[in-house]
Amino acid sequence: MPKISTSGTHSTKIYYYEQGEGQPVVLIHGWPLSHRMWESQITALSEAGYRVIAYDRRGFGESGRPAGGYDYDTFADDLNELMIQLDLKDAALAGFSMGGGEVARYIGRYGTERVSRAMLLGAVPPFLLKTDDNPDGVDKSVFDGMLEGVKKDRVAFLQQFFPNFYNLDAASARDSDLIAFSKWIAWAASGLATQQCIVAFGMTDFRADLGKFDVPTLIVHGDSDKIVPIEVSGSRSREMIRGSKLEVIKGAPHGFAATHPQQLNALMLDFLRS
């Protein structure tokens, strides 16, 4: 099982899955999933001639479950360790949902020496939390409610979370299968990591990080996203990242990597080839 070791406080092992050869594309999953959410993208990108590396964030999937380090500075440090230990150069970084925060904070902390392109897919930047200088953000009570729900009964919380994640009818057979698959992935995560990541993606300000982007950047968002509304995320990231391109998938929910895979795969490949 391929893993890299991180250093510093709360060091751990980070699992990664690798497929294909060519220019590296690093896929960073969303909360509360793992690298398994990228199955369609891994197939499409590797068959198109790219070396795809999809890793599990600390506390999720097959990675280690340390007692701490569930903050974006540490997540960026973990990604940096992966980039160095696998000697990745000219890499494209693609982050979905909270994974977009890793892309942003990595570039903010480490620059783009090893990075040639960036993709923010249904991503949480620039800043979700409503504050005096971010009046269009999300009320803190929303994140407090999520944290309370996960602490009280994580399984029950996920039961009601994923239908909104995909905008699906849990009574439908196909929809029920996708929701069940997602819950199976999420159930395997560390309870502590699941809790603390809510604080991380809900409270972290990435606005300064976005100002350091100096590589071509693709932003993809669904206009029916109920989890990370496009108005407070994708649209604003487009305004803050010089030269970035925003692609809106009509009718797509938050989890469009699974519900609209062909459209997402085409957008990613067009961007990588451009």
UniProtKB/TrEMBL annotation:
Gene3D superfamilies: alpha/beta hydrolase. One of its GO terms (molecular function) is hydrolase activity. Pfam families: Abhydrolase_1. Keywords: Hydrolase. Residues 24-257 form the AB hydrolase-1 domain. It comes from the Bacteria. Belongs to the AB hydrolase superfamily. Bacterial non-heme haloperoxidase / perhydrolase family. This is Alpha/beta hydrolase. It comes from Noviherbaspirillum galbum.
